[in-house]
Amino acid sequence: MSNSSNQDNNSVQMPSKIEQTLDLRKFVAPEIIVGRDARLLLCRYLQHFTARRPMIVTDGHLLDLPWFQEILEQISSCTEDHFIFSDISPNPRDYETMLGADLFIAQKCDVIIAIGGGSPMDCAKGIGIVASNGGNILDYEGVDQIKLPGPPLICIPSTAGTSADVSQFAIICDTLSQVKKAIISKKVVPDLALIDPVPLMTMDMYLTACTGMDALTHAIEAYVSNAQSALTDVHALEAIKLVSENLLDAVKPERTLDTMFNMLQASLQAGLAFSNASLGAVHALAHSLGGLLDLPHGQCNSILLEHVIALNYETAPARYNRIAEALGASPDRDSLLERIRELRGRAGIKPYIEIDDISDKLMDQLTVNAVSDPCIVTNPRQLSIQEVKEIYGRIFTTQKS
Ligand SMILES: [Fe+2]
What we know:
Rossmann fold; Dehydroquinate synthase-like, alpha domain; binds fe (ii) ion; alpha/beta; six-stranded parallel sheet; 11 strands; globular
């Protein structure tokens, strides 16, 4: 790799010269067990939490998969009973969370086990908040708005990207306003993450692509965040490198358990980074887009990422150049953007979103929601209303065009 003329040209393997900050930072993480068949350690922890009737919060289409059945057998062997809640949409709704909380209480459950992707895990976090604190899930929007911790929460991810299994974020859709609301609190960090590559082998290819690009976006946004620290930097850079080296193998039918484990490790490290450094404009714009148009989160990020980097680059060129190096590209703006486009394209994600009509009203609403999202605060560059609108203008295409 060649070096640029930037003031800092360290390679990924030399994080010691990454800028340090003397500003206060904290780093929170759950207990993490990572490795093949980690999911089968569930009983040990259910006994630790003295669980008698856990609620399993999951995605309905996972229920018949062999690895899921193995987990159910585990749970049955060490608890009196369990209750399965799977009425959850891809972008989990406020009313689904409220229904789950009602059922948690009515069914006299005592522990929550979230199994699946980001949607069931975020919904599970919301269920725990409401079960312990009452009120409506949307009351807890924002940073540190939760008084009481929820019941013990164990997460077993079946995708590699969301990182809800390690993060202090829960994203819930406010169905009235069609806005995805971010709940950010140490109290939604799970108690335990069982991170096992086996469930990932059943993930479909497009979901693998989208969640992998989501993990990449988490790592990049955490690395250039205003709230980064030395602790988040090392995780972010390693995650970027792992996605770069494994994503395209992960979307092939002949993918291996090792490849999926590397993607899971990337997701884990990106999650540790963004949970503690927060995110940026890609996620702010993606939350707005996903909320209004009900689109997959990872797809939104994948499409927006290159446009936000193009705007942000000059604010933090040294950091973006190190990201380029971690992606195996030359440390300059154009090479970085080209590599991001290459990864997205070869993973099978289009660079645009097709909609029937791009109205001024839609563009205005998207923009208003994006600039109100808490993730915009830690973007390295303050984006103007016009710049946000212009990004949205670049990613849409109509059926007619
Ligand atoms: Fe994300």
